[in-house]
Design brief:
The protein is built from three helices and nine strands. With 171 residues, the chain is an alpha+beta fold. The chain has a single domain, classed as Jelly Rolls, CATH 2.60.120.
Amino acid sequence: MKRVILLIASGLCALLMIGGMFGYTYEDSIDNVAVPMTGTAVGFADEPLTESAIPSALISPELTITWKADVWVGLVTEEEFNRCAPSDGISTTCGPSSTNFAAGGPNTKDAKTFTYDIGGDVYYPVDGQSFGGTESSVDVNYSVKVTLAWPVIIFFGALGTGLQVLAYRMR
């Protein structure tokens, strides 16, 4: 009976390991993020994109952001959000050249997409446009692909193998 339990536990480790490598993808959007009319200000979303209670040592989240409007989009950390102090979604304190982007920024205007490993920090989407732009808001679509971190996958593999060996020796 113990041998059967060890083999079942080993099988569960294998399933967790394989499932963790494929991961899970979550898709959502943030609508109507304010876009400053001038090319010297930065628009901020009111809510952060990411707030995970799971430590980044256990998971590996990868964020992909896409948009269609003729603007640029970026990500800033919570500290940068607080430093720029946006009022009604627009910061005049920080401009496109003075904002510390974690990812994206003015160089993403033509690509309209970027991917970033978001780890365990809290990130806010930001946007802006060139001088003479006409957009007043942008819809930001994003997907987060979460996989297990490699140390966790290796742990499940080693544990499953150890349980197999232990079950084999119980004959």
